[in-house]
Amino acid sequence: MSPAEGGEEVFFEFTAIGRSVKVSAVHAATGVEVSVVGPSSALRADLQRLALQKLKARLAAKRP
Questions:
Q1: What is the pLDDT of residues 54-64, one digit of tens each?
Q2: Domain ranges, ordered by start, for the chain
């Protein structure tokens, strides 16, 4: 778990797939989920940051 901007909770799941890692980010309040895939050699924090940016973009696109 990690607080997103504004104090909202986001859950992250890391799944190893061969030499890649799939990172899923779920916004706790809305259930909106996004995922990114990166190399397993990448830093966990970098992949998490990328997933969080994608989630923020998805949430912003859903707002009227």
A1: 999 999 998 77
A2: 2-62
Closest by CA to 10, choosing from 51, 40, 57, 43, is 51
Q: pLDDT value at position 63?
A: 79
- Cα–Cα dist 2/19, whole Å: 25
What does pTM read for this prediction? Answer: 0.86
Nearest to 27 by CA among 45, 64, 42, 57: 57
Residue 47 binned pLDDT confidence (cut-offs 50, 70, 90): very high
Q: Which fold has domain 2-62?
A: Double Stranded RNA Binding Domain (3.30.160)
C-alpha closest to that of 39 among 10, 58, 16: 16
